[in-house]
Amino acid sequence: MTTPALLPLSGRRIPPLNLGPPSFPHHRATLRLSEKFILLLILSAFITLCFGAFFFLPDSSKHKRFDLGLEDVLIPHVDAGKGAKHPGIFLIHGPDEHRHREEEERLRNKIRADHEKALEEAKEKLKKSREEIRAEIQTEKNKVVQEMKIREKKPLPAVPIPNLIGTHGGDPEDNDLREKREKIKEMMKHAWDNYRIYGWGHNELRPIARKGHSTNIFGTSQMGATIVDALDTLYIMGLHDEFRDGQKWIENNLDFSVNSEVSVFEVNIRFIGGLLAAYYLSGEEIFKIKAVQLAEKLLPAFNTPTGIPWAMVNLKSGVGRNWGWASAGSSILAEFGTLHMEFVHLSYLTGNPIYYKKVMHIRKLLQKMDRPNGLYPNYLNPRTGRWGQYHTSVGGLGDSFYEYLLKAWLMSDKTDHEARKMYDDAVEAIEKHLIRKSRGGLTFIGEWKNGHLEKKMGHLACFAGGMFVLGADGSRMDKAGHYLELGAEIARTCHESYDRTALKLGPESFKFDGAVEAVAVRQAEKYYILRPEVIETYWYLWRFTHDPRYREWGWEAALAIEKYCRVSGGFSGVKDVYSSTPTHDDVQQSFFLAETLKYLYLLFSGDDLLPLDHWVFNTEAHPLPVLHLANTTLSRNPAVR
Ligand code: DMJ
């Protein structure tokens, strides 16, 4: 049997390779299969080389020939000299032709020698065992990975770091306060230590089952959400060993090149916010680098017809989509509207305006849209740019959009007037259409649904007490007093929602309906999952009024959490705050460490720790410094090149 591959391509016969006994035709047929295979490999390597050489030869398209009656040749990449029309090209005549031929011959010889060398190498390779070849491939791979790691760790361009004031301190003036603050720190240690033992690297902890926990917002991969979310709390509490432990995990394990679909909003507020805050507080470059790497992975979510990002994005493929439950394939206001702070900081730190542009585009688009009663609906379709259902809420689905308008202004050192105007307009519409007083005199924020006001307020909406107080200074027509009062009223209502339960912990949402005031009615709304919003509002009110009642209310909440949510393996949410024998949900949420415990700690600290004229907290309680920029817009600031 003739091996077709042994026939020379030109059609001429070549003597058979001397690979065995004398070459009688029938001996060729007796070659062992493995030998045939080796011959086949050598020949195909040779063909590949010839093919490759074709590409290594100078590009013929660059050697334009002109028929000038002379054997004139155009040679590329040589200085044309003065007066030449085509720089880089000049003509060679008569005597130079010899030199050119020599050059061609030299090239041909080089290619021939390269072929020989490659053939030899191929033969050598074939002598090696499979294991050796595998090991060589692995070494090559490792080299590439190593190089990539070095490239990843390259420091980003330096920008002037804002003046960081109050990253330490806040030591309370009296013993009682000191003890309370120490107690909160001890609670943080209990939450962290148990996560460290039973859930390390997982997103969250199941404190009763004593194992890791996760939800779809973090995707399918172990991204250590609790570590990233908790870092800045550890830092301000002075838990430095724990902080370093978290940092090490991030350095060695936090990887965003995973085939996992995550929530853009959640990953932004918890991971990018957490990493940026850790960077500003500690000055450790790794946090900034990781934040930027992650942000790069989120950018494909903005590839929609309108530029309104998808709710979810696959970190590997960049494919985005929206939640199946959202009205008509819409994106959610509180999600795409809660990117601004982090993205502006990313542009500031990297000098890359892309992040800033993405969020400003969202703002511009929203400004152009009609708003029913001046209210922003919760749903917006990213394909059509039209609102979905006309539902408006200052609680879930809407909340942090309003918060970020105010905080964009604060973070810009009060120079982003556009954001302040949008906030003022929105708050006026909210007051007019959503805020009411109950028969018993409790001020609440309802939700606009299907053409009427639903008299129900979510735990999430309780954050607005703090927001109104924070936005009081700088409000229109000097209504600062009014907004301080409004914030205090919301705080009182939310405190009532806690006080009217058996556990002194607030339900997920509560009604105002006839005799029912600030109480959950449906079983499915009676849970408390370690949320921070009420304590957050107490803290803002404390900072702005120094009314001792907010510290008292905060301490009540801390004691209730300690009594009903603490288990030996950490802290857990409870399923029914009206039952004096609580059932645990067995989840220690990452925001418990990021927010609830941080706000409690700050409540019992002096105001010199993270002062509010220098720091703005993102919606996950990660402090970001005010950017004292000289210009009114970031794009005109030299820091963003
Ligand atoms: C946190 O992740 C953030 O505060 C977010 O804005 C909404 N609420 C949760 C905690 O309740």
Automatic annotation (TrEMBL):
GO terms for biological process: carbohydrate metabolic process; glycoprotein metabolic process; lung alveolus development; respiratory gaseous exchange by respiratory system. Its main location: membrane. It is found in: Endomembrane system. It is a single-pass type II membrane protein. It catalyses: N(4)-(alpha-D-Man-(1->2)-alpha-D-Man-(1->2)-alpha-D-Man-(1->3)-[alpha-D-Man-(1->3)-[alpha-D-Man-(1->2)-alpha-D-Man-(1->6)]-alpha-D-Man-(1->6)]-beta-D-Man-(1->4)-beta-D-GlcNAc-(1->4)-beta-D-GlcNAc)-L-asparaginyl-[protein] (N-glucan mannose isomer 8A1,2,3B1,3) + 3 H2O = N(4)-(alpha-D-Man-(1->3)-[alpha-D-Man-(1->3)-[alpha-D-Man-(1->6)]-alpha-D-Man-(1->6)]-beta-D-Man-(1->4)-beta-D-GlcNAc-(1->4)-beta-D-GlcNAc)-L-asparaginyl-[protein] (N-glucan mannose isomer 5A1,2) + 3 beta-D-mannose; N(4)-(alpha-D-Man-(1->2)-alpha-D-Man-(1->2)-alpha-D-Man-(1->3)-[alpha-D-Man-(1->2)-alpha-D-Man-(1->3)-[alpha-D-Man-(1->2)-alpha-D-Man-(1->6)]-alpha-D-Man-(1->6)]-beta-D-Man-(1->4)-beta-D-GlcNAc-(1->4)-beta-D-GlcNAc)-L-asparaginyl-[protein] (N-glucan mannose isomer 9A1,2,3B1,2,3) + 4 H2O = N(4)-(alpha-D-Man-(1->3)-[alpha-D-Man-(1->3)-[alpha-D-Man-(1->6)]-alpha-D-Man-(1->6)]-beta-D-Man-(1->4)-beta-D-GlcNAc-(1->4)-beta-D-GlcNAc)-L-asparaginyl-[protein] (N-glucan mannose isomer 5A1,2) + 4 beta-D-mannose. The chain crosses the membrane at residues 37-57. The active site is at E266 (proton donor), D399, E508 (proton donor), E533. GO terms for cellular component: endoplasmic reticulum; extracellular exosome; Golgi membrane. Its EC number is 3.2.1.-. Disulfide bonds join C462-C494. Ca(2+) binds at T619. Residues 101-143 form a coiled coil. Its cofactor is Ca(2+). The keyword Metal-binding applies. GO terms for molecular function: calcium ion binding; mannosyl-oligosaccharide 1,2-alpha-mannosidase activity. Pathway: Protein modification; protein glycosylation. InterPro entries: 6hp_glycosidase-like_sf, Glyco_hydro_47, Glycosyl_Hydrolase_47, Seven-hairpin_glycosidases. Keywords: Calcium, Coiled coil, Disulfide bond, Glycosidase, Hydrolase, Membrane, Metal-binding, Signal-anchor, Transmembrane, Transmembrane helix. Belongs to the glycosyl hydrolase 47 family. Involved in the maturation of Asn-linked oligosaccharides. Progressively trim alpha-1,2-linked mannose residues from Man(9)GlcNAc(2) to produce Man(5)GlcNAc(2). This is alpha-1,2-Mannosidase. It comes from Capra hircus (Goat). The gene is MAN1A2.
